[in-house]
Amino acid sequence: LAKTTQPISMDSYEGQEVNITCSHNNIATNDYITWYQQFPSQGPRFIIQGYKTKVTNEVASLFIPADRKSSTLSLPRVSLSDTAVYYCLVGPMNRDDKIIFGKGTRLHILP
Amino acid sequence: DVKVTQSSRYLVKRTGEKVFLECVQDMDHENMFWYRQDPGLGLRLIYFSYDVKMKEKGDIPEGYSVSREKKERFSLILESASTNQTSMYLCASSPDRNSYEQYFGPGTRLTVT
Description:
Distance between the termini of chain B: 37 Å
Radius of gyration of chain A: 13 Å
Structural class of chain B: mainly beta
Oligomer: heterodimer
Strand content of chain B: over 45%
Order of helices and strands of chain B: EEEEEEEEEEE
Number of helices of chain B: 0
Number of strands of chain A: 9
Largest interface: A-B, 21 and 22 residues
Strand content of chain A: over 45%
Helix content of chain A: under 10%
Shape of chain A: globular
Strand order of the largest sheet of chain A: 1-9-8-3-4
């Protein structure tokens, strides 16, 4: 499983767009990038997954540059309820390895 | 919506007790997982199961066992609880063995005194 590096914490304000970047320099050709969100006192929740370029859903967008050595999770117009820990995971779909969660990025939204 | 439920949100047990943590999912998923989450250590995989009566060790299986008698139910057993097993325990299920899309339960905060 490719090692990932994320900021430990970030602060932002309500209404802002928040971008969380994950570095994965040794990503393999068949690796996908997956992001999870975890609210306090809850289990993690899958939010988005991608392989290249851009993926968008109702919660977030995921931007992946051509070299795929990093990815950016973008949360549009955040609210206080987006305060959570965000985990970036990288690995192949056809895998026998286990999912490994890193320490994630603690996002704190301020009023 | 996929629903993963865990038998208790909070549990307090004494050292040496046998502890059962139950997890049930309602989406007919074949794959189920048990994690523990500790501050500064993130989520760590204890055991997982890809089928009924099948189990595989994760990263930290010592002191734990599991049981999967029915597809929807995956139990984590602490044979003799110790204080270092005080933690948040999270169960998850997944429709596809190769998928990174796991559905988590709300967690059980276990305190061993």
